[in-house]
What we know:
Radius of gyration: 17 Å
Order of helices and strands: HHHHHHHHHHHH
Distance between the termini: 38 Å
Shape: globular
Strand content: under 5%
Helix content: over 70%
Structural class: mainly alpha
Number of helices: 12
Number of strands: 0
Amino acid sequence: MAATSPGTTGFSSWLRARSEPDWTAVVEHPFTDALLDGSMPDEYMSSYLVQDYQFVDDFLALLGAAVAKADRYSSRLALAGSITVVTSEENTYFQRAFDALGIPESDRVDPELDPATVVFRDLMRDTRDNGGYAEVLTVLTVAEWTYLEWAGRAPAKPDSFVHAEWIALHSNPGFQSWVAWLRSELDRVGEGLDERERARCLRLFQQATKCELDFFTAHWD
C-alpha cells in the first residue's frame, strides 16, 4: 500500500497539534517505554494484551464501516487490504503471546473489561454507527498513528518475542505505509469539510487520543 508521506500542514497534522499534551503523553508513556526496552513485567503485558484483544472485533467493524462509507473505489481497496492484516498476522501474534504468557481461555474470550476498554469500545461503536467517512477515518487514524509513533521509538528489539513482535507489527514498512495512507486520506477528505464537520472530527480525534492515554495508564502502576 504505497503512499506519499503526508506533510505537516494537512488536516491530520492540524488535528494532532490540537490534541496536545495528550498525544505526546501517549507516545512517550512509561508503559510504552517499558515495552520498548524490554522491562515490561509479564503481569502488566498480560493484562494489556487481554484487554487490547477485546478491541479487535470493534476495530474490524470500524474498518468495515470505513469501506462502506468511503467515497471512492481506490479508498475501499486500501481499507479492505488492512482487514487482512488484522485477521491474520495480528491475530496470530495474540494467540502465540497468550500461550507464552499462560493466559487462560476465559480471559482470551470473555474477560472482565477495564473501564478504559469500555469507553474506547463505545467510542468506536458510536463512530461506526453514527459517523460519516471523515469521522470514521479520524478514529482509525488516531488508533494507528499513535501506535506507529511510539513503536518507532524502539532503539532495538527486546529479547522477548511478546514485546519485539508487538513493536514490529506497529513499526514495519507496511504499517508505516498504512498510517501514511490513513493520514493522506484524512487530509484529502478534510479539505471538503465545513467548519462544523471539522470541529466534529477534532472532538473525535481528541477523545480517541484521550482513550489511548487512559488505556495505557490503566495497565501501568
